[in-house]
Predict the structure.
Amino acid sequence: MAILVTGGTGYIGSHTVVDLLDNGYDVIIVDNFSNSKPEVLNRIYTITNRRPKFYRADVSDYEAMAEIFEKEYIEAVIHFAGLKSVAESVEKPELYFDNNVGSSKVLLKLMEIHRVSNLVFSSSATVYGVPQHVPLKEDDQVGGCTNPYGQTKLDIEYLLKDFAKAHPEANIAILRYFNPIGAHQSGLIGEDPNGIPNNLMPYITQVAIGKRPHLNVYGSDYKTIDGTGVRDYIHVVDLARGHLCALKKLEEKPGLVIYNLGTGKGTSVLQLVHAFEQANNIKIPYVICERRPGDIDENYAEVSKAYEQLGFKTKYDIVDACRDSWRWQSNNPNGYDQY
Ligand code: NAD
Ligand code: UD1
């Protein structure tokens, strides 16, 4: 019996695969390397001394996935595979729909045929749209997504809810991630964005390594502690462990369940910059700019449901994450590309 991990060579997937292997699970990864590199597999082996099975395939390709489901004995699926760039999704909404919703449909169909009833799905805090209040609770209103990427996450959540109604034997954990940052303590795996990073932490580490002259801080007139945007930054190693907690929960056959995975604490852009400077003794020059369209003042998670029902509690704080992100970036200035 093995766990099928789609998108398992990506940022969150690779950290989760390490935790699964370290905890004795057998793992089968499916990834098409659209946003990751084969070198990740070597790094996973170096960390865990175990090699997961790997298939290079597109999860939205029904025939390719059907072959894998025929060959393998799959106990549960963790579905990370998806495109995640907000800006690209605005340019190419059909690509995002086909890739993200299409791959989820293929998986559900094959899970039904092969009687695989357990699924963990990577959703996002983006499904809450513009929050009415913080902290955000799982039963708060969703919708009002400001971009096609966010809309695909919400569409998939609805699809999963309908699927669970039609298939009472299905057990599905929808995990709504807040903002993952940090890297594995080994410095061997981490976030490796293509081109100019969209997200805050990889931008900061690229300033620190000298690839970018300064950080652009998008707006200083938000209704927050210092005017800059507030988010809930969760260490990716904690986030990975959340998936193992969710798999354990599915063994209780709960039907469909939804959990926020965050720390419950908000941190502003400038607070994160200062934490990075303090943790690593590196100055991060920044320039205050215009707001980024679609950004919100603040969001952070209500975390009591995940604690009470999954026993999930974060171990690491933003200073740990800043130290680990920097270890990854400084050991791998060009990410997984060696030169
Ligand atoms: P990532 O891009 O690093 O990983 C996604 C992986 O999926 C990549 O390895 C990519 O090659 C693969 N992939 C994409 N489409 C595929 C397809 N059709 N078939 C096979 N493989 C495919 O992203 P990540 O940060 O690790 O995110 C993982 C999941 O979590 C995504 O679904 C993302 O939307 C979701 N999520 C991420 C964040 C975040 O801030 N990183 C926040 C909320 C939700
Ligand atoms: C963004 C996406 C969200 C997605 C998430 C994870 C948008 C509007 N939202 O969330 O849909 O789920 O990434 O991929 O893109 N910031 C700067 N300078 C930078 C980068 C960011 O000041 O160079 C600020 C932002 O304005 C924000 C905070 O840092 O206040 C965090 O930004 P980011 O890391 O992009 O995450 P989100 O905006 O929360």
User: Anything to note?
Assistant: The CA atoms of residues 10 and 70 lie 25 Å apart. DSSP finds eleven helices and 13 strands in the chain. The mean pLDDT is 97.
